[in-house]
Amino acid sequence: MNQNKVLFIINGLGYGGAETHLLRLSKALLIKGWKVSLVTLNNDLALLDKLDKRIKHYELKFSISSILRHIFKLFEIIKIEQPQVIHAHLFQANILSRFIKLFNSDIFVVNTTHGSYLLNIRKYNPYFIYRITKNWVDFHTAVSNEVLELLINNKSIIPKKAQFLPNGMDLSTLKPKSFKNNKFMWLTAGRLHPVKDFSNLINACQIVREKFENFELHIAGDGVEKDNLNTLINHFKLQDTVKLLGLQSNMIELMPRYDSFVMSSYSEGLPMVLLEAMSVGLPVLSTKVGQIPLILNHSKGGILVEPKNYESLAGGMITMMSLDSKKTENMQLANFKYIKSHLDINLLTDSWIKIYKQGHVD
């Protein structure tokens, strides 16, 4: 019997939820006997050292100006790897995989969308491009029901060939946090981008400081908002309270040092960093966006507040910091147990294989 083969295509391997998910899924597929290969389209390869050494990696360094040359190069890779399944992640890779389908009809092409698209900050409409090419893909998944509904409402996918499938976690080495701090330590993480609304979170800290002085907020990540956030921190004289950590190579190891994770975004799908925080037992304070309310309402391990409202965020932070130790421990354990029972990557990989087998792999 021939070995089942999947070729992943993704924009890059930088610090992000989609990239982390791909690394975990690819490893789980290897364990289940699949041959896995990978194509990346840009130079952001910060997580390349996390890629399993058994996976052949091809760097395409894709550009629109050389699109034909890169498509022919991709055809060469497909000829070498001979995958039954191509699984693309993120918009650019998804669209490229659809062109492959036009010339390789026997390959089963799967696309995954990891978040909603904010049309007011884009020069093009991804939903429209998906719509006019939706017949060029065999199956489309989304990491949250909200993202899936947006794709359906914009007629960007064929509903009977689509489903919600969350990101998964590798729980083999994880255990609940037990680290104790002298002050309440908050952690948040993500691209320093307006959609994450870290400026709103810094505004909230100004209010919280009026009631609690013994706390810190650490923001892990980098991006276009860095200078603006530093200016805001200095404006409110929060230099001793709010710290920008920059990019962190292994968030899952950093997280147990904190008391709670906070997410201030005004748009999300199902962020991997939130699942990571829950998996190490951190209580969560989050805005009501994407799949997050559904997850936290089930786990009972967090507090939900309104997005784009720093007073609501501040109230949530004060509530979390005022909880007694028993309530905090219950929330820690609840989040850990929820991730273990619902989002184990090894269990979710079986769902991915079921999708792949629609393409008649062995």
Summed up, the helix count is 13
Gross morphology is globular
Order of helices and strands: EHEEHEHEHEHEEHEHEHEHEHEHHH
Number of strands: 13
**Tell me about the biggest sheet?**
7 strands, parallel
Low-confidence stretches: none
Provide structural commentary.
The protein has about 350 residues and is an alpha/beta fold. The chain folds into two domains: about 5-170 and about 345-360, Glycogen Phosphorylase B (Rossmann fold); about 185-340, 3-Layer(aba) Sandwich (Rossmann fold), CATH 3.40.50. It is built from 13 helices and 13 strands. The strands form two sheets. A seven-stranded parallel beta sheet has the order 3-2-1-4-5-6-7, sandwiched between helices. The mean pLDDT is about 90.
Helix-strand blueprint:
Layout: E1 5-10, H1 17-31, E2 35-40, E3 56-59, H2 67-81, E4 85-89, H3 91-103, E5 108-113, H4 126-133, E6 139-142, H5 145-153, E7 162-164, E8 184-189, H6 198-209, E9 215-220, H7 226-235, E10 242-246, H8 251-254, E11 260-263, H9 272-279, E12 284-287, H10 292-299, E13 302-305, H11 310-322, H12 325-342, H13 345-356
Helix pairs in contact: 1-13, 6-7, 6-11
List keywords for this structure.
362 residues; alpha/beta; Rossmann fold; 2 domains; 7-stranded parallel sheet; 6-stranded parallel sheet; 13 helices; 13 strands; globular
Would you summarize the structure shown here?
With 362 residues, the protein is an alpha/beta fold.
